[in-house]
Amino acid sequence: MKEKELINPLSARDTDRIIEMAWEDRTPFDAIEAQFGLAEPEVIVLMRRSLKPASWRRWRARVQGRSTKHALKASEQMHRFKSDRQRAISGNKISKR
User: Which of 6, 25, 41, 95 is the most exposed place for a label (fewest CB within 10 A)?
Assistant: First the structure.
């Protein structure tokens, strides 16, 4: 993706969620593409625009060495888009203090 504008621009909430998913080790780029329609190169461009230069370099170094971020390299046992603990977290069962 070369500096092209998206047909449907992402909301701030969607952008934050994509960045969060990109930082997660076990979330493959295929999951981001399935949910938001952004392929891996588009996610890389989004991350480069959104992160500070040092954070960008740290993220790229981390992602390039990860087999779990790429579905073809991931183990065959991993077929889920979310963590086992995600329901408890998103269910907001922890009382606010």
Answer: 95
CA-CA-CA-CA torsion sign (75, 79, 85, 89): positive
- Is the residue at 36 inside a domain? yes
Local structure of 65: helix, strand or coil: coil
Summarize pLDDT for 18-72 with one digit per residue, the tens. Answer: 999 999 888 889 999 999 999 999 999 999 999 999 999 999 998 887 777 766 6
User: Does the model's pTM come out above 0.70?
Assistant: no
In the chain, the number of structural domains is 1
The residues near 5 (Cβ < 8 Å, ≥ 6 apart) are none
Amino acid in the structure at residue 14: D
In a domain, residue 83? The reply is yes
Q: What is d(CA 96, CA 87) in angstroms, rounded to the nearest whole number?
A: 17
Q: Tell me the mean pLDDT in the region 4-23.
A: 82
Enclosing domain of residue 37: 12-90
Instruction: With respect to residue 50, please indicate whether it lies within any of the assigned structural domains.
Output: yes
